[in-house]
Request: fold
Amino acid sequence: MRYDVVVIGAGPGGSVAAKTCAEKGLSVLLVEKRQEIGAPVRCAEGIGKKDLERFVEPKKKFIAAEVVGAKIYAPDGTEITLTEEMAGNEVGYVLERKVFDRYLAKLAANAGADVMVKTSAVGMEKKDGGVKVKLRRMGEEFEVECSIVIGADGVESRVGKWAGIDTTLKLDEIESCVQYLMTGIDFDPEYCHFWFGNKIAPGGYVWLFPKGNSSANVGVGVMPSLAKKPPKDFLDEFVERNYGKGRIVEVVAGAVPVKGEIETAVADNVMLVGDAARHADPITGGGIANAMKAGYYAGVTAAEAIEKGDCSAKTLRKYDERWKNDFGKDLAKKRKIQQKLVKMDDETLNKIMHTLAECRLEEISVRAILKALIKKHPKLLWDLKDFII
Amino acid sequence: MAKKVVVNRYRCAYCGACVAVCKFNANELVETFLVIDEEKCNGCGICVKVCPMNALEVVS
Reply:
């Protein structure tokens, strides 16, 4: 078997990559190791409306809820409300990933991509200027040749390592997360909710994302370098304290890479997209939007490289250029801010939130708020000024 | 005695966090279950710290 492109992993990044390749006229195989695309879920399922609509028409079947903004709670309970635009790339729609991921994979298939599920990539090697990918499908091993491999194989990515891109994460470059889908709980369904504090979520936050009908994803992410116990313990305590009467109908575990911008997501014949390329937002943890953008850029770049007959790292660098210009700088900036945020004690977090609460957030820009913050707490944020002014 | 990491399959929620932090590539999420390669694992325990479900343990 031979394809122009093999995409490994059928999450949003992989499916958009496969769809883009197919639309550009390439032969493409989309491989998913799980037997069900989209399950088990490893996601809080939030995405900004514009980010989603850039790639797909929103459909009721994969949108569980819509929100108008975010409510953020300081350790002392101080509350601030952000509009959708200000809340970043994770707030707007709350998806039903099980349905959404399958929908995207079907779009790729309809565009002409071949799809294989319950099929794992178990290795790859260079061959005649291309790549030989070893696959295992229901116990049977076989090989597929291609010109380009797009590694969309998630936080646990192997493709990058095979290609010589070291993607191993340190304990302060990852958020360890647990989430319950809860039902029968009371909350304001117009907003996604975020709680900060070193006692409830060291190096991360607790979230509640509405999913309709008094159901919500309630989860916690912590930074393992700072947390003294596993996130499940933090979540159980939070739920017990706040939503003790709710029922848990699903358990979700996951890890979010928060390393920020990596130097390169490219090697000879290989491009990494989404969590595999550590594309998730280091502050919000949101990863769907950037994964889809990266998938699109990887698809476009693959088509150009194959047209040119040159799939070397040098040619594929155009992909690095594209994702870095779009959101790479933002990842780098957010990483710096996050490194500052995770070191703040609760008293400092409270102070910042009090300042924010005094601003009329609807009327002024994020930049203006940050300027006000720096003016009020110069010492605290001085070394961040270059990033935000 | 050499140290190694063992997984409690009844706790593991197959998220892949442990795979992402292992520089020895000892942990692997095969489809939806975790496999730890005893040959590659040196029992450093970094994966134990990242596990959201407290499903991993270093044993001798």
Residues 4-59 of chain B form a domain with the Alpha-Beta Plaits fold (CATH 3.30.70.20).
